[in-house]
Design a protein that fits this description.
By secondary structure, the chain is mainly α. The chain is 72% helix and 0% strand. The chain contains 14 helices and no strands.
Length: 297
């Protein structure tokens, strides 16, 4: 006599998993959707809860105010430049630091790894870092955005684990037996086989540099060098005018507060849009590369 399984059927399990995934997607995507519809809605309707699913009091005044600032285009160009240069620099630094540490025959490998790990927990702080950057002549230089944090140790460990666990050591040995130098092996074998983890590091670096405004605020003094997040911050600050300025505007504080809120939501969308456009092109590598680099085999 056959006994019935006490577990859930495959179909029921699939339905439950789909519902859980749908709930998680909704939980993650809705805040961004809410900001999007709020950016084209009347702020008073937003605060009144009238924009739960659809815009209310449709308006593009927030976007008009953001794009009316002449510094916005300059900020976009600066952010693109900093993101591209910074991403290339960071990925290169990750590779040339992670690959040697993945080699078990590297002299002093454990001590070098420990040196990197210590920097994850201990740092000099903002003022000592600023003084070092100043003494090296990097104030108001774009390289101040890259050099102080050129190697993300957490990312470096992920890349190192990928080299150790996902690229067969026998393949490297075979290439060296065939006459390749260590440099040729790195460029012709290791890099082509590590595209998934490279895509992950590119995404991490791009998002970090694109959203970074605090570093630019500290080290870049010229407004012509400000990245987009810093430009948007300045636009938002300028929209919050003093009482004397508010009294000269029709509607006073109420109108100014309304405009400030519209600019706030619009700025978030303007800043996030480029990353949302780029991400789908590298998403297919993301999960594979991240899991391969993070899990020890």
């Amino acid at each position: 006599m056959e006994t019935k399984s006490k577990g859930l059927s495959d179909k029921t399990s699939d339905i439950i998993l789909v519902l859980i995934c749908a709930f998680v997607v909704l939980l993650v995507a809705y805040p961004l959707y809410y900001v999007l519809i709020a950016s084209v809605s009347n702020p008073y309707d937003v605060y009144a809860g009238k924009t739960f699913l659809l815009p209310s009091g449709f308006t593009l005044k927030g976007y008009a105010a953001v794009f009316a600032d002449k510094a916005l285009f300059t900020g976009y160009m600066n952010s693109i430049k900093y993101t591209v240069i910074g991403t290339i620099f960071s990925v290169v630094m990750l590779y040339i630091s992670a690959y040697p540490l993945a080699q078990k025959d590297l002299p002093g490998r454990k001590y070098i790894s420990l040196f990197f790990i210590i920097t994850m927990y201990f740092g000099g702080g903002l003022i000592p870092t600023y003084l070092i950057v100043k003494q090296t002549g990097l104030i108001n230089n774009m390289w101040a955005l890259f050099l102080p944090g050129g190697v993300g140790v957490g990312n470096m460990i992920i890349v190192r684990n990928y080299f150790q666990n996902s690229i067969p050591h026998e393949l490297i040995e075979a290439s060296e037996i065939d006459g390749c130098s260590k440099l040729q092996t790195f460029f012709k074998v290791v890099i082509p086989l590590s595209k998934p983890i490279m895509a992950v590091m590119v995404v991490f670096s791009m998002v970090a540099y694109w959203n970074d405004w605090f570093t630019a605020l500290i080290y870049l003094t010229g407004s012509d060098k400000a990245p987009l997040p810093l430009v948007l911050r300045n636009i938002l600050i300028k929209s919050s005018v003093s009482a004397s300025q508010a009294s000269t505007i029709s509607g006073g504080y109420a109108e100014l507060n309304k405009m400030t809120e519209m600019i706030k939501f619009s700025s978030i969308i303007v800043a996030a849009a480029p990353m949302l456009i780029v991400y789908p092109f590298v998403q297919k590598y993301f999960e594979k590369g991240f899991m391969a680099g993070a899990v020890k085999g």
